[in-house]
Amino acid sequence: MTRPGNRPPSASEQKLAASLAGAVDLSGLKKRAEAQRAPVAAARAPGAAAGPATLIEVDEASFEQEVLVRSTQVPVVVELMSRRAPTVLTTLLSSLAEEAGGQWVHAIVDVDAAPGIAQAFQARAVPTVVAVAAGRPLADFEGEQPEDALRQWLAAVLQATEGKLSGMPEAEAGGEQEEVADTERDAAEDALAEGELATAEERFTALVGSRPGDHTLLEALRYVQAARRASEASDAGEGTVPAALRAADRALVSGEYEPAFAVLVDAIRVSAGDDRATLRARLVDLLEALPTDDPRVLAARRNLANALY
């Protein structure tokens, strides 16, 4: 197998890796909100019939839109490959994606043209295949695989993400239907993009109440709440509890979930009574920003149990 270069990551590649980890840049809120609403262009052969997009080619410029944003709808199976050493895996995955009819998308990345993506995934060799769902890596493997093994792996990915993603937009899945506008979500995202955090919090709270099955809305709400508290907080409050709450909010706003959880757990260990209850309640709220099966959530819950007992 051809191995990608081992050079140190550049500044642009470090930024790409941070994006993959879920970090949020406050200065880019408007760009991100607009990107989430933008239609995703499918890579189809000229003259191909309209239908669900099953194959896309991704570079560093399109990675966020084509992989991270798209993966909130359906799993994106990213194949890190090299055109200098093509394999049958590319053809096989493309065929299986077409057969699946839009249940998942096959994304091809030429690591020679987009080395930053290989760095972000910490790929050791090509071909490497990574399933991304809700903007996060879910499962991966290296090297070519027989068709039966690929089908089993893909079935496991679909089972793990069942009911957790929003699904393919009707315009893309149906081929001829127009995209249905989500005016309520657009309004919430517009408020967030404009920095109107109180309004954004109110609108996302209403959306969470009316759409309890959409985890992405709850994640957005927890982010907005942390951003609002961080913007309103001062360093005047003394003591373990105010300091821990401020530090956790700032970490969450930066996309640093593990430090946010850790600072609260550490404060819980040295607190008691009402202080401990306040810290625990905030930690439980922040844990909701990620899926319940996220390794960071599972680790934080174990650490919380150890701190309490």
UniProtKB/TrEMBL annotation:
Pfam families: Thioredoxin, TPR_20. One of its GO terms (biological process) is response to stress. Residues 57-155 form the Thioredoxin domain. This is Thioredoxin domain-containing protein. The lineage of its organism: Bacteria, Bacillati, Actinomycetota, Actinomycetes, Mycobacteriales.
